[in-house]
Amino acid sequence: MKWFDLKEVVNQKPKFLALVEQNIKVNGKFVDYKFVYSSKHNYFKFITKEEENKNYLLNKLSIFKSKISVPEKIDDKNISENEFIESILDHCTYSPIKNVKDPETKKKIVFKKFEQCKVKYLNKKNMNDLTLEQFTKLEKNKIINNSKNKTEIKKNKNNSKKKWNITNDKNFVVSLKWEKLPYLTVSTLKMTNENIGIINIKFYETKDECVGALALADNNEGTWSINCPDNPDREDGFKKKLAASGSISIELKNLIGLGYDTNNNKVKFLSNIEYSDE
């Protein structure tokens, strides 16, 4: 495995450079080793390549070339700061250190014990010896706080919706659009109290009357459903067990219903309503 010198790393112009420190036991003593991580390298994927020999003639002969493993080069344009920190702390914590030689004896150093990896600096930012444990805790707290904030925003949004009380015992005209229904309709809506209403849909040609109900919650949203009597004289698909249901919402003075019938035809209606507390 190849170890890059600092000049090589800097010349690649990475988006992030990190100085990481790890206390390691060597020959019975703990030594603080420092490593530089570059966001241009994928430290979890190494590729094998031939190392060029400084001697030009020997470099032409493959038998004199040694093979080395180098980390894969990557485009770090879209890597975020947190992604980089997490990857280098994971690598430092869980990947073994290999091919480190004593500068004087040139012998490989055998490491016995490893303490926590600590990020000292990220570019010019002092990271205050950030460990994987601390980073994980910070990220977990961020997720919890974001979840709390979203819940609070949703709660405030729901609380900000005024509960509109529709005028009771008054028939409101309903504009109905029922997919594939071949009949003209005369439709009305009447609220019996602030939360419950009755829907009437009359088919003009067949004289059938479909009756249903709607239920509104305090957030001005709710559900509706209707049922129609069987009639063998109606068009195919509308003769028997004809029913529909869906959801309701209120936007200003419009009560809007959306749903589907038993044949999966789309049903939509709109009623211009009045409020008792205006």
Would you mind describing this structure in some detail?
This protein is of the alpha+beta class. The chain contains four helices and 14 strands. The model has no long low-confidence stretch (mean pLDDT 82).
Secondary-structure map:
Blueprint: H1 6-11, E1 17-26, E2 29-38, E3 41-51, H2 56-59, E4 66-73, H3 81-94, E5 113-122, E6 125-130, H4 132-160, E7 172-178, E8 185-191, E9 196-203, E10 209-216, E11 221-227, E12 243-251, E13 254-261, E14 266-272
Antiparallel strand pairs: 1-2, 1-5, 3-4, 5-6, 7-8, 7-14, 8-9, 9-10, 10-11, 11-12, 12-13, 13-14
What's this model, at a glance?
This protein has 278 residues and is of the alpha+beta class. The protein has helices at 6-11, 56-59, 81-94, 132-160; strands spanning 17-26, 29-38, 41-51, 66-73, 113-122, 125-130, 172-178, 185-191, 196-203, 209-216, 221-227, 243-251, 254-261, 266-272. The model has no long low-confidence stretch (mean pLDDT 82).
Spatial shape = elongated
Average of the residue pLDDT scores: 82
Structural class: alpha+beta
Q: How many helical stretches?
A: 4
Strand order in the largest sheet: 7-8-9-10-11-12-13-14
Taken as a percent bin, the fraction of beta residues is 35-45%
Number of strands: 14
Radius of gyration: 36 Å
- Number of domain modules: 2
Helix content: 10-25%
- Low-pLDDT runs of 5+ residues are none
Query: Can you write the helix and strand succession as a string?
Result: HEEEHEHEEHEEEEEEEE
Note the main sheet: 8 strands, antiparallel, barrel
Give the terminus-to-terminus CA distance. 78 Å
